[in-house]
Amino acid sequence: MQVGAHVSVAGGVDNAVDREVDVGGNCGQIFTTSPQVWQDPEFEDGEAERFREWSREENVGPWVIHASYLVNLATPKKKLREKSVASLQAELDAADRLGIDYVNVHLGAHTGAGVEQGLTNAADTLDALDIPEGVTLLVESDAGSGTKLGDEFDHLGAVLDRSTQDLEVCLDTAHVFAAGYDLSTPAEVETTFAEFDDLVGVENLACVHLNDSKHGCGTNKDEHAHVGEGKIGTEGMRAVLTHEAVRDVPLVLETPEENGKDFAWNVERTRELAD
Ligand SMILES: [Zn+2]
Ligand SMILES: [Zn+2]
What we know:
The chain contains nine helices and ten strands. It is an alpha/beta fold.
């Protein structure tokens, strides 16, 4: 199975490969730059070359670039939309240079424009991108606070329908759960994925952010917990991991480092539960 963690690129993007190997991961995710500021990825050709080479040598992949949190695809504001397109385009071009398969982005918030308009804005914004061949853009599910979109599977399905781009989807288990889709028992996991299949299509699921949730189902609160140690729990996580929709999909951990548990612990836990 492909399971890895969201690792740091401190000291150079090529360092991410070693960090992934250190936690026992064989796929992974990075921010190319600080996700809280408008800043384009910056790295030398040599760095990109080493990243590609070491990923190949160590058999780490696929990789995902998580776009900046400032990107807001659904925004009705022209300036913010332009900045979002430029930032996301830079991430897509970085993925191309690094040989990275996926760029992952949230839909953002409609900030008063309404859900329908927000979804149309998101699709239009995505259509302004020039997605390099070999790179796939993923829209991620959201926990759904404020006017953020993507908490309902319907939103993801609508954007896939309305955009002319060939998009796929990343489900974050903590977000899905917080958004109100129960994942805490095998029966609920079955129901949730049946609904996802109905509204989005399991064939469009390209990545799972595997996180347990510190908060209950439907709370819209986004705080990640160690695998099996949150409100989804061991039975729920095992049911997700062994579900046929998930079994062959790369899993990326965005779990916290606390209580003496780190990514290595979560990678091992994930492999145990999937077994
Ligand atoms: Zn995310
Ligand atoms: Zn996530």
